[in-house]
């Protein structure tokens, strides 16, 4: 099989793995190698559903000894199999980089022979890239659950980011759909990476030139919709991961029905639950940047997100006793809870009001979305228009203004963007949560 044939198979096999991002690290070129990685992120193009397209995103192999019921590459499936060699991955990465197709590598893999055997191949690939080809660009690699600590540590000194997929939100779901995997095997390497990152930060303080271990942190991914967990359960799991494992990101992957199995949800003809995925990303953003807690957004009595309104707007409608907020007096954290005010706008408001009192014209220039915020704020003690602080009244007015649903729901199907698509003419756009 040619390297081109393998590329077609293994890029397509990687399309269901969404846990790739490139921001959060800085690897400057020293003048002797090729490539660089900027702190602001090397990925500048996104597909319409938010997936990054400027990394070479491949599986090392789609062969797997496991039989996860939701996975297209499971052992029992009759699919065309392929495996790269470390040198082939290096060749592809360097050649695509030189042609300006990509600026980094996202490398995942099925489990070939054993976790240790697979992890050793991934380590060999990264070692060749860094030391033989002197590639200094961004690399995100998957840590293989069950692999030895030594292999994971050695690989971590070569990668910018590592991740291990949580796969499913609960241990019960994992046992039902991925019987070869256990929560312990998944959380053990996650804890190892966290501890080693903490140790490495102390080493860097003492020795400036100490090698960096996973400088961009670690992330994970959960499949959404394959099992019956509520949004509340999923957000609580994500919150716990952020607090206990110091993760940079939790990614949510809408379940795609690629296998026929009695343990999986029945086909409905509606496609992947992309709106639910979108709401979870919005809630995740609130956890990480807006100082919300999971218990504020959902509860056992109200376990799922509103289909129509985003989680912050829905929270505000349910807590009208907190509003209206006076923008010239409210603290930063309270400003963050106002629909239509993002964290950048909140920072600008805090800085601008040091120079004088703000009015609605100033807020518009700052970037506040007034068509949403006007129901929840006052400027100098006055609302923009006479407004009744009633949930039904505000809901009707927000709906009449037009709630913007995510593009995934209204305008696209589920398709992995090819490395050979010309993104200038494709249906691509930046999609912010």
UniProtKB/TrEMBL annotation:
Q: Which InterPro entries match?
A: Aldolase_TIM, DNA_rSAM_put, Endo/Exo/Phosphatase_dom_1, rSAM, rSAM_sf, RuvA_2-like
A molecular function GO annotation: catalytic activity
Q: Which domain of life is it from?
A: Bacteria
Alphabetized UniProt keyword annotations:
Iron, Iron-sulfur, Metal-binding, S-adenosyl-L-methionine
One Pfam family cited in the UniProt record for this chain: Fer4_12
The record, for PANTHER family, names:
ENDONUCLEASE/EXONUCLEASE/PHOSPHATASE FAMILY DOMAIN-CONTAINING PROTEIN 1, TYPE II SECRETION SYSTEM PROTEIN K
Name it: Putative DNA modification/repair radical SAM protein
